[in-house]
Structures are given as C-alpha cells and as structure tokens.
Amino acid sequence: MALSLLGAQAALAGPPIAGVGTVSCTFVGKAKIKPKLIIGGTTSPVVTKLGGKLTCSGGTLDGATVIAGKVKGLITNPGPNANDCLGLAAGLPAFTATVKWKVSPGSPKLLPSTVNFAAGGPGDINLAGPGGSIALTINGVGAAGGSFVGSPIVAVAVTDETLAAFTTACTPPSKGLKGFAFTGLNAPSTVDVQ
C-alpha cells in the first residue's frame, strides 16, 4: 500500500503536461503605462506592463483542474503619437502574454501558456462599459510549446476607472494617465480558454 502511494505521488510529481480543454477565469490586476497617456501626446513608443491573478473554475478536461493562474504581458505601441489618449480608441497592438496555471491538489501540473493576442480595432473597445467603465475585448490563441495550444483565448478587461475619470486624467493640465486597474469594481474582468 505504501509503495503504491509513493508511486502515485511520483507520477503526480512528474514533469508538467500540455493541458487541453477549456478554462473559465476571472482576472484581477493592473496595467502600468509608460510614458503616461495624455491628449495630444507625441511620445513613442509606449510600453504597458500587464500583470495579475486568475481565479478559475468550471473548465473541461485538463482545464477542469485549473483553480488559479498568474498573467504577465508586455504591450509595446511603436506608432506615432503613441501616448495620445485618443489613440486608445483605435485598439491595442498585437502582443504576447504568459499564463502560469495552478491546478487542484493531486492533479498533474500544467505547462504555462503563451498567448498571442491579435491587434484589436475600434470595435473591441467599449467606451460605455458597465458602471461607466471602459471594457476591452482581446482575442488570442495558445501558442505551441505550452498548454491549450491552438485554443482561442478571449479576455474581457473591465477598468475600475470610468470614462469620465479617464478623460479627466488625459486632459491637460492633468499630468496624464499612468495605468488602469482591474479589480472588478464595475464588473469582473474575464479570461476564457475556449
């Protein structure tokens, strides 16, 4: 009996596997923007560091074992006048994020996912989101070498900041917008592996 338990523990302690299936998560985190965004800004490039935590449930196959995760991403906008607040309405540039998955006790560990998010357009940004927020829909796909390869991954980021607060921060003589928070103040932000 003891030997069989040791064998089972050894199997679970083996190398992480490439997970498959679906996952549904809520996201809490921040986006830090440098340099700050301001109406009429002329600086380029602008770099946004995205980070946060996932709380997950209700998945299928290997995704059913996922209970949490950590997300990191780097968004670089090299375009002209990249720190002009008005440019945000055009959508986000393409970027890559990594997700480290945490599974329930006793489940095989999963390889991290690299997610390639496609460039967005004006239709992906809702300036009349829940509670007056700004809601961004970002579409990606799981890259080779990790978990959920080829799976569509859809993130909906709902800002704590309202459009009114965004406008105030962006309008001189204000010093500019240095980032967004996503804590669920107006509505949950979500990440779904489909």
Describe the structure.
- This protein has two helices and ten strands, in the order αββββββββαββ.
- Strands 1-2-3-4-5-7-8-10 form an eight-stranded antiparallel beta barrel.
- About 30% of the residues are buried.
- The N and C termini lie far apart (about 40 Å).
- By secondary structure, it is mainly beta.
**Rg, Å, rounded:** 19 Å
Spatially, the strands of the biggest sheet line up as 1-2-3-4-5-7-8-10
Reading the helices and strands in chain order gives: HEEEEEEEEHEE
Name the overall outline.
elongated
Care to count the β-strands?
A: 10
> Uncertain spans, ≥5 residues at pLDDT below 50?
1-11
| Main pleated-sheet profile | 8 strands, antiparallel, barrel
- What's the mean pLDDT score? 92
> Approximately what portion of the residues adopt beta-strand conformation?
over 45%
Distance between the termini: 40 Å
Helicity level, as a percent range?
Answer: under 10%
Count of individual helical segments:
2
Structural class: mainly beta
Keywords:
mainly beta; single chain; 194 residues; 10% helix
Brief digest:
This protein has 194 residues and is mostly beta strands. The chain contains two helices and ten strands, in the order αββββββββαββ. The radius of gyration is 19 Å and the shape is elongated.
